[in-house]
Design a protein that fits this description.
The chain folds into two domains: 206 residues, Jelly Rolls (Sandwich); 101 residues, Jelly Rolls, CATH 2.60.120. The protein contains five helices and 24 strands. It has a seven-stranded mixed sheet. Strands 3-2-4-11-6-9-15 form a seven-stranded mixed sheet. A five-stranded antiparallel sheet has the order 8-7-10-5-12. With 323 residues, the chain is mainly beta.
């Protein structure tokens, strides 16, 4: 594969194109400063304004959220997996219909495999613009977002209406619901009762892993299997996530029978393949084609780490077991 072909599969951090109207809370005070990025796949955006950098199916979606300090993403639910790792800043993740069932603070490099069927939200509690990278299960990302009822009500008060077709309509732009399209109905009490509300111990103990702990595990000379059937988070959400550092990186080329994705966290990484090479920096995202022999090693001294994602072909279904 030529370098030109591969360049089309590399999304540089500095070239990310944000969408500021991606979701229903885009006008709600406290959430109106956030930016959403759709890197690989269509994601779960409700706005036609989103820009998809790489549309090739991978079996999962890659996205990102960028927010200034004190900006939050409103409480919502997904039918498929949602995994975040913190690229920049300090973030508070919270859950429950009103966000008061539990919370956890994540630092740079930490990863959170958020269980499905719980309302979740997140907030930048750092002192500068922050960025979190997201992996969503399935090529269709589960068909959208399920919002907590109060989020939909707040959005309507600020001019945004979500149609039952999953699309947003902005009255501030003179757009109203089309004829025959009703507003998205609020969840009933019976439906809300079926949403899980796990304890902080259940969520933090089972679904959060810390950067420094994973970094230490790679000093054995092997990648840290973060999410997978044999991972330190034992789950099969439709993809696997590995954590790789210079302690376990190898220049020996290998290939996969499915597309894979490289997402540097620290340092610069030189990726070589049969036909060319490229250097990746933190925040860059690279899609590696199936059956392409390649390698990835740090190109400079100092700390170096990256996340590797590959589809497993499992259904991108529920991860929460109630354990």
């Amino acid at each position: 594969m030529t370098p030109q072909d591969m360049q089309a599969r590399i999304v540089r951090y500095g070239d990310l194109r944000p969408c500021k109207t991606a979701f229903i809370d885009a006008h709600t005070p406290g959430s109106d400063q956030k930016e959403n990025f759709t890197i690989i796949g269509g994601g779960v955006s409700e706005s036609p304004d989103q820009h998809v950098h790489i549309s090739l199916p991978h079996g999962f979606n890659i996205g990102a959220a960028g927010q200034p300090p004190k900006c939050r993403n409103s409480l919502h639910n997904h039918r498929t997996a949602e995994v975040f790792f913190v690229l920049k800043g300090r973030w508070r993740f919270f859950w429950g219909e009103h966000g008061d069932a539990g919370e956890v603070i994540l630092e740079e490099g930490d990863i959170f495999n958020i269980p499905t069927n719980i309302f979740r939200g997140f907030e930048n509690i750092g002192t500068d613009y922050g960025m979190i990278m997201a992996i969503l299960g399935g090529d269709d990302a589960g068909g959208g977002v399920i919002w907590a009822p109060h989020v939909i009500k707040d959005a309507q008060a600020h001019g945004l209406v979500l149609g039952e077709n999953g699309k947003l309509y902005d009255s501030k732009q003179g757009v109203s619901l089309p004829e025959g399209v009703n507003p998205m109905p609020l969840l009933s009490k019976d439906e809300l009762a079926k949403v899980d509300t796990p304890t902080p111990m259940q969520v933090v103990g089972g679904y959060v892993r810390r950067y420094l702990d994973m970094f230490a595990l790679t000093q054995s000379g092997k990648p840290c299997k973060v999410i997978g059937e044999r991972g330190i988070i034992r789950d099969r959400p439709g993809f696997e996530v590995d954590f790789i550092t210079r302690h376990c990186a190898t220049s020996q080329k290998h290939s996969h029978d499915r597309p894979s994705v490289l997402m540097p966290m620290r340092g610069h990484w030189r990726v070589e393949w049969d036909g060319g090479s490229a250097t990746l920096a933190p925040g860059d995202t690279m899609s590696v084609p199936e059956n392409l022999a390649h390698s990835a090693v740090p190109s400079m001294t100092g700390e170096a780490s990256l996340y590797h994602v590959i589809s497993t072909g499992d259904p991108a279904g529920a991860t929460w077991t109630g354990a």
